[in-house]
Amino acid sequence: MKKICLIEDEESLADLIRMNLELEGYRVDVITHGTEAFLRAFEMEQFDLVILDVMLPEVSGLTICKEIRKYSRVPILFLSAKGTTQDRIAGLKIGANDYLPKPFDLEELLLRVQVLVEGIEETTTPLEKVIIGNHQVDFSTFEVKNLQTGENIDLSKREIELLKMFYNRIGVVVSREDILDELWGNDQFPTARTIDNYILSFRKLFEEDPKNPKFFHSIRGVGYKFTL
Question: What is the CATH number of domain 3-122?
Answer without folding.
Answer: 3.40.50.2300
